[in-house]
């Protein structure tokens, strides 16, 4: 499996060499960090750690890792970037391919307006400067899934530059401390996707499906401001949430709508940045952090053993849990960039510069798009904290889990219980059950209405919290019944009859004179024993606090 | 465009490449090594007019062309020399012209599906087809080095 999982992440993280797991062996210990001296060589961003870890052991040196990301997000549009064929995930091979996508001679690119709007909206959401004039270029390389022999991209002058992405990592023993971080965005550019290759090693051939060729991509380049796998994974998750909120990309990694390449290097603090490797094929949210951490450890081990890092492209092998050099990418690539001769510059306008009498279909107004931006995740989280008084880390969890926020809001709509109670039940009990059985929110056997009803019963003090937990378990197992049904079936209602309870308290005390004597002697634990006995007598249908009050009243009288 | 530049006094050819942004500068791409060697040899060619063997190899690998013989290399050298005469023009303070379309409007197409569904037609172009997939050789086959190739053949 991959390198030891790193449990906590500190800014300006220091890496200590640990054994890389290449097999069943366990590492010597998890890499730890230590206080930064403030120097990070030529890195222009100095980040101070807030978390101290143990001192490095003798003989082990400190390393700092630098991680940059290139993220490709498939634009959510009906048709492709430069042609009118459909964008769709599953379709018969080569059925969504136009003559242009197949690169037949005589075809020309025609830019899709929706893709430009998607790029501008994403740039605005990421605090970028939108270039009012951007240019298209050709990037040449030979591969069977790129029929034209080049990809149309924006290398010289992309559509958006110099933005930032804010994200929050949870650190500490219970992951309860929230640290806000920022990663700079170098640029966002529009480019074409390539087709899909299916390698048939048995027959020594590759099968090509061009359905994906020409689909619009947004390439988001993140500067190397991150220092470990967890930071990178968190930044990617936040970008995913933003793209989904904007509707510019569905950003589903499993369906290949979001692909990540990482540029990783290590160096000693205070020294210049090391040689970087590019790790491709990081297409799973689960393995993103693991792969990056593995590569960091690999580089550290290589350098500690006196080796050197090659500026190469590697791939992450999910089965082996390690990075391996990519055979096809040996040797340096020269992409021979040239301006795309068939496309004039892309001009964007704002309200001030919009030409009078222009066809609205043919012009894009940045200001108009800015006004139409939907609510971003950071704003949603802030609203949750303000409206419901929940902790920031709770709002993070609510948004991070797919469908959880909607579930929470639906419960809130139908219940009178306090928001804090609802939050606690949703994030602890409900989410706990989901995680235990590895289910998505959409697969939950408990509906928001059912949970709302349960919480109402609890709020009315019709049942105790212990009983509520039991009801929840039963709801999970049986699905069909309502909480009220379960409560009456299992006779979990709290005793409402005061007199009956008083009689029971009296009876219990008479049956256990020893305990009463203990209590009168001043033994504090005796009262709990007595409460326990009364509860048993009530078949757990009485509220312990009420029992305690009653006992104390009876004892003092 | 030419008229604007032509008004200036002709000056001696300027040295160095007024180049396109280099790929090595772009994020994440592997730099150094073969790329800069090729570019430096290319730059040397501009000074001497001769194109080195490494450059020919590099070009053959990049563009998947076969120079086929010394005549082709000589033709390329003459072409480069011909194009070099551009450097006689003084372009101080003049923005480079990258496309004759730069004053044109870039047409924006509505996001509607109007093409596709012609797999059968497209697959007819392919030499080999397997179940509606195009068939290509496995991966990228690396070219043998120039020394390992057969001597130039007259073609």
UniProtKB/TrEMBL annotation, chain A:
Its EC number is: 6.3.5.-
Major localisation: mitochondrion
Q: Where is the composition biased (Low complexity)?
A: 33-44
One annotated Gene Ontology cellular component of this protein: mitochondrion
Q: Which reaction does it catalyse?
A: L-aspartyl-tRNA(Asn) + L-glutamine + ATP + H2O = L-asparaginyl-tRNA(Asn) + L-glutamate + ADP + phosphate + 2 H(+); L-glutamyl-tRNA(Gln) + L-glutamine + ATP + H2O = L-glutaminyl-tRNA(Gln) + L-glutamate + ADP + phosphate + H(+)
| Region Disordered, residue ranges | 22-57
Q: What general EC class does the enzyme of this chain belong to?
A: ligase
* Entries under InterPro entries matching the protein: Asn/Gln-tRNA_amidoTrfase_suB/E, Asn/Gln-tRNA_Trfase_suB/E_cat, Asn/Gln_amidotransferase, Asn/Gln_tRNA_amidoTrase-B-like, GatB, GatB_Yqey_C_2, Gln-tRNA_amidoTrfase_suB_CS, Gln_synth/guanido_kin_cat_dom
GO MF: ATP binding; glutaminyl-tRNA synthase (glutamine-hydrolyzing) activity; transferase activity
Top-rank lineage group of the source organism? Eukaryota
GO biological process assignments: glutaminyl-tRNAGln biosynthesis via transamidation; mitochondrial translation
Q: Which family does it belong to?
A: Belongs to the GatB/GatE family. GatB subfamily.
- Assembly: Subunit of the heterotrimeric GatCAB amidotransferase (AdT) complex, composed of A (QRSL1), B (GATB) and C (GATC) subunits.
Known role: Allows the formation of correctly charged Gln-tRNA(Gln) through the transamidation of misacylated Glu-tRNA(Gln) in the mitochondria. The reaction takes place in the presence of glutamine and ATP through an activated gamma-phospho-Glu-tRNA(Gln).
UniProt cross-references to PANTHER family, sorted A to Z: GLUTAMYL-TRNA GLN AMIDOTRANSFERASE SUBUNIT B MITOCHONDRIAL AND PROKARYOTIC PET112-RELATED, GLUTAMYL-TRNA(GLN) AMIDOTRANSFERASE SUBUNIT B, MITOCHONDRIAL
Q: What is this protein called?
A: Glutamyl-tRNA(Gln) amidotransferase subunit B, mitochondrial
Which organism is this entry from? Myotis myotis
Underlying gene: GATB
């Amino acid at each position: 499996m991959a390198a030891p999982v790193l449990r906590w992440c500190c800014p300006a993280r220091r890496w200590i060499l640990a054994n890389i797991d290449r097999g069943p062996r366990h590492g010597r210990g998890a890499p730890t960090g230590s206080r930064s001296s403030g120097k990070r060589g030529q890195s222009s961003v100095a980040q101070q750690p807030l978390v101290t870890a143990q001192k490095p052991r003798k003989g082990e040196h400190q390393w700092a890792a630098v991680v940059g990301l290139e993220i490709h997000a498939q634009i959510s549009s009906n048709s492709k970037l430069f042609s009118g064929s459909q964008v769709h995930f599953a379709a018969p091979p080569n059925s969504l391919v136009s003559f242009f996508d197949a690169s037949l001679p005589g075809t020309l690119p025609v830019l899709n307006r929706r893709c430009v709007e998607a790029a501008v909206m994403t740039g605005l959401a990421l605090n970028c400067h939108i270039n009012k004039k951007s240019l298209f270029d050709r990037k040449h390389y030979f591969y069977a899934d790129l029929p034209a022999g080049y990809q149309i991209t924006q290398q010289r002058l992309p559509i958006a530059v110099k933005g930032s992405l804010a994200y929050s990592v949870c650190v500490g023993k219970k992951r309860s401390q929230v640290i806000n971080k920022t990663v700079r965005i170098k640029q966002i550019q529009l480019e074409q996707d390539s087709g899909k290759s299916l390698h048939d090693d048995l027959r020594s051939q590759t099968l090509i499906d061009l359905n994906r060729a020409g689909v619009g991509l947004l390439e988001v380049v993140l500067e190397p401001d991150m220092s470990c796998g967890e930071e990178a994974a968190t930044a990617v998750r936040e970008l995913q949430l933003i793209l989904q909120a904007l509707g510019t990309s569905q950003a589903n990694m499993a369906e290949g709508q979001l692909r990540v390449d990482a540029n990783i290097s290590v160096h000693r603090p205070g020294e210049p940045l090391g040689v970087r490797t590019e790790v491709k094929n990081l297409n799973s949210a689960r393995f993103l952090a693991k792969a990056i951490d593995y590569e960091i450890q690999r580089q550290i081990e290589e350098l500690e053993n006196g080796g050197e890092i090659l500026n190469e492209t590697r791939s992450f092998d999910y089965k082996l849990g390690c990075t391996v050099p990519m055979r096809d990418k040996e040797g340096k690539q020269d992409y021979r960039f040239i301006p795309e001769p068939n496309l004039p510059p892309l001009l964007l306008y704002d309200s001030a510069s919009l030409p009078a009498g222009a066809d609205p279909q043919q012009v894009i107004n940045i200001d108009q798009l800015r006004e139409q931006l939907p609510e971003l995740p950071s704003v949603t989280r802030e609203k949750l904290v303000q409206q419901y008084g929940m902790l920031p880390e709770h709002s993070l969890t609510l948004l991070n889990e797919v469908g959880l926020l909607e579930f929470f809001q639906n419960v809130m709509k139908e219940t009178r219980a306090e928001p804090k109670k609802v939050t606690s039940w949703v994030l602890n009990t409900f989410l706990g059950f989901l995680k235990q059985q590895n289910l998505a929110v959409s697969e939950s056997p408990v509906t928001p209405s059912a949970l709302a009803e349960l919480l109402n019963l609890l709020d009315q003090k019709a049942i105790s919290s212990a009983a509520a937990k039991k009801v929840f378990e039963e709801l999970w197992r049986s699905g069909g019944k309502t909480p009220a049904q379960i409560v009456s079936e299992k006779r979990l209602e709290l005793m409402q009859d005061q007199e009956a309870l008083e009689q029971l308290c009296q009876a219990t005390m008479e049956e256990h004179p020893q305990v009463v004597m203990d209590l009168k002697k001043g033994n504090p634990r005796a009262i709990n024993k007595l409460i326990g006995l009364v509860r048993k007598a009530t078949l757990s249908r009485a509220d312990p606090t009420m029992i305690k009050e009653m006992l104390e009243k009876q004892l003092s009288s | 465009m030419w008229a604007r530049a032509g008004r200036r006094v002709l000056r001696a050819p300027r040295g160095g490449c007024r180049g396109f942004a280099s790929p090595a500068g772009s994020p994440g791409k592997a730099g150094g090594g073969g790329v800069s060697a090729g570019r430096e040899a290319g730059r040397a060619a501009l000074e001497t007019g001769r194109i080195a063997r490494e450059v020919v190899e590099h070009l053959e690998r990049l563009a998947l062309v076969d120079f086929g013989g010394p005549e082709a290399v000589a033709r390329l050298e003459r072409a480069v020399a011909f194009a070099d005469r551009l450097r006689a023009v003084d372009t101080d303070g003049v923005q480079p012209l990258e496309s004759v379309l730069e004053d044109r409007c870039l047409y924006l197409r509505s996001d509607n599906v109007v093409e596709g569904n012609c797999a059968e037609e497209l697959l007819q172009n392919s030499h080999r087809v397997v179940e509606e997939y195009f068939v290509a050789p496995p991966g990228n086959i690396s070219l043998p080095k120039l020394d390992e190739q057969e001597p130039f053949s007259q073609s």
